[in-house]
Amino acid sequence: MATAGVSGSREKELWRRLGEVNDPELDEAITEMGFVERAEVKGDGNVEVDFRLPTYWCSPNFAFLMLDGVRKALDQLSWSPAYRVKLHDHMFAEEVNRGIEVGRTFGDIFAELAEDKDIDTLRETFSMKAFKRRQEAVLRGLREHGLTDHEILGTDLTAYDAVRFAPGEAAVQKPRYRAALLERFPERQAGDPVFVTWEGRQIAPAAFSAYLAELRGVRVNMEFNGALCRGLKQTRYKELGVVDGEPTLVDFIMDRVPARSAPAV
Question: What's the whole-model pTM score?
């Protein structure tokens, strides 16, 4: 029983850690997106993770950032296991998996695959989008809460922490925006304004509506990409579907329908 209890506790910790890794483009957990095909704690405590992306040609930049996030998550597991991470069904899966097997870092593997891309610049771009998306959700929530624009823009960290939202997007994003704010501006004090631009500028009340429109554009783009990724992955990996006794049109398009044998004469 004790062993089973330890195993169950480790499985929960494993999935919790993986759930903290986000798709960098979408700012959504890779576990919620369905990218973690399998995550298992073996009998000896070692960990195996199988990882899939929506399409064969997903950007190696995104793959690298997520796999690097998975590596960091596994490094934080309390029992410090050995682990194996395997990327499946991707145009660079062979190179990535072979590199991992021989002990190369993701950075080394990425350097060969990403050509002239700057990984730190990519990280900052995606961090900026996540900052804006989270901020926009909270700002909309405060407006719906009945606060005036002046009250919202004057909110400091102490007042921010006291806000309570009903269940919904604003409630989900409130702690996530706080984390993004303090990661971006670690010297932020309790009395400093919570809502600033990515560059750290205060937002003027007269410019607030235009600023919200800009943030909305970021959110809509990310939500569209998220829906597209989910649809592509579901279409790519779903089992053969049958409607009224026949395979669906999508299954014919994806060439998942086995050929029928000609009737015997």
Answer: 0.78
